[in-house]
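The instructor's notes for this session suggest beginning with a concrete chain rather than abstract definitions. Hand out the sequence below and ask the class to guess, before any prediction is shown, which regions might be ordered.
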Amino acid sequence: MSTVLAFLVVAIVVTFLGALVAVSRQRRRERAGAVPAGERVVREARNCGSRVFVSTDVIGGPRAGRINRSPADLVMTDKRLLIATRHGRVLELTAGTGGSVRCTGPRRLVVEGDRPQKDGVMHVRAELIVNDADVWAALAAERLDTTTRALR
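After discussion, reveal the predicted structure:
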């Protein structure tokens, strides 16, 4: 009886810790996808499937040379395009920073850009599954002057 009770306690603790980690990751993604005060959200997609590739490792963040998969929030305002994952704000494109937003197929959006780091610049590529990917690419080209290409 005590063995069954021990397994039950362990299962409950592991389930609780898993739920705590999931909620923590979701809150971090939501905070990272928040827009600055005074900016109007033009378009947003929450909880999209994503694969993020980075050129250098980030402590506590995405790893170079690996496919970093996680749900992502994609937010476009008048001034910026934000991509937030469980690692926080992964990429932010503004009108002055350049970058690339492409629709590579139905529901497939590829966003590339550089992110400043303490020791240089890190290149980030995010592949997202989002409805109306061609609309996202066109809006980014219009509002942020990014290079864009839609597959027709």
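Then share the key points. The chain has one domain: 2-150. The first strand starts at residue 41 and ends at 54.
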